[in-house]
Design brief:
alpha/beta; TIM Barrel; eleven-stranded mixed beta sheet; three-stranded mixed beta sheet; 12 helices; disordered N terminus
Length: about 375
């Protein structure tokens, strides 16, 4: 199925994880040759009907140092209506991690596919092992670092492929709540850009981990909804904390084979409930770009305390995406008609559009159909305006 991106009146950007090649830091922290694939392949089903492991199909267990892989990803995304990748960018006071794939995309000029960046400004910890308080690499904020950071970003923001809104390069920040004075950071970034002859950046804060703020209050232009949005979660099945008070009863059920230990060790939700709740969110008073996810299950990374959204199907995802397309066309105008998908390739969190062995290209095909519907809705909206 070949649905070119231009067939839709809005742009659809997919978050892109670069952690599919070895780096020295991961070798030291997690063992020689570590990549995200190590987490992916060790996953196991934890209860009846639980979909794990997620194993890649068409693109295989790729290495992002290989340019043909990056071309194949862009070709596949483009064919099903994705109009660009939003690469996670890791900056720690001048130290950059996992930067090789994007650097090669930039310097080679290939693939010829739009992109933007999202600064993933979290501390790196051992949370994948359940040890969140052991910090491997910490963020340190300062005006000097803000300036150095933006000077580093300037060549990327000037690239002809870089995603722009009203001529301004779109830059996301994953956790603005971690920045001591985000308004000061935003002002300094704009100053550096304008001094270099670039338009001031279109700054968007990601509404991650339930954090919400009016973007203009911190000097930003917009927000990007993150899916799943933790503030609107449906009720989970019983999980560890709730079972502590009924441990004897739980142990009896487990011994009788009537209850998986996963219900004690993790938080398990229904994907359909998440979809409904995110669609029902009231409109924001500011510019918010909507986001959908084809699924979420980070039990591949976490032995306990994982969040598992059970029961995702291409049909449920398609209906959610269609609703967010309609919302975007109704509430946003011209170049601000942008929608995010989380994600292109977050395999160890179970949220990927890339084909897997269970569903093949079904989620990509659902994406293309939803964006075809967007084209029809866009034509209807235009007809009503004229």
């Amino acid at each position: 199925m070949d649905q070119e991106a231009g067939a839709s009146p809005l742009r659809t950007l997919a978050f892109y994880l670069p952690q599919y090649h070895p780096i020295a830091e991961n070798d030291e922290w997690w063992g020689a040759g570590f990549t995200e694939w190590r987490n992916v392949v060790r996953a196991k089903p934890l209860f009846k009907g639980h979909y794990q492991p997620h194993l890649p199909a068409d693109l295989g267990f790729y290495d992002l140092r290989v340019p043909e892989t990056r071309e194949a990803q862009a070709d596949l995304a483009r064919a099903y209506g994705i109009t660009g990748f939003c690469y996670y960018h890791y900056w720690f006071n001048g130290r950059r991690l996992l930067s090789r794939p994007f650097h090669e995309v930039f310097h080679s000029g290939r693939p010829q596919f739009p992109f933007c960046l999202c600064w993933a400004n979290e501390n790196w910890t051992r949370k994948w092992d359940g040890q969140e308080h052991e910090v491997l690499l910490a963020q340190r904020y300062s005006p000097d670092d803000d300036r150095q950071h933006m000077e580093y970003l300037l060549p990327f923001l000037a690239d002809e492929r870089y995603v722009r809104i009203h001529g301004r390069p779109l830059l996301l920040v994953y956790r603005t709540a971690n920045i001591p004075d985000p308004a000061r950071t935003a002002d300094l970034w704009r100053e550096v850009c304008i001094k270099a002859g670039l338009p001031n950046p279109y700054l968007a804060e990601v509404e991650s981990h339930g954090h919400e703020v009016v973007p203009r209050d911190i000097g930003f232009d917009a927000a990007v909804e993150f899916a799943p949005h933790w503030k609107v979660l449906p009720a989970a099945h019983r999980h560890r904390e709730e079972w502590d008070g009924v441990a004897r009863f739980y142990n009896q059920l487990q011994k009788a084979g009537l209850m998986s230990p996963a219900y004690r060790q993790h938080r398990i939700y229904f994907y359909a409930d998440l979809s409904r709740r995110m669609q029902a969110k009231p409109p924001a008073s500011y510019t918010r770009f909507r986001c959908v996810t084809p699924g979420w299950d980070n039990s591949a990374r976490r032995q306990w305390g994982a969040n598992i959204f059970h029961g995702s199907t291409p049909e449920l995802y398609e209906r959610w995406l269609e609703a967010m397309v309609a919302d975007t066309l109704q509430r946003r105008e011209s170049e601000e008609r942008i929608l995010f998908v989380n994600a292109w390739n977050e395999w160890a969190e179970g949220n990927h559009l890339e084909p897997d062995r269970r569903w093949g290209r079904a989620y990509l095909e659902a994406t293309a159909r939803a964006l075809q519907a967007a084209h029809r809705v866009g034509q209807q909206c235009q007809a009503m305006r004229t």
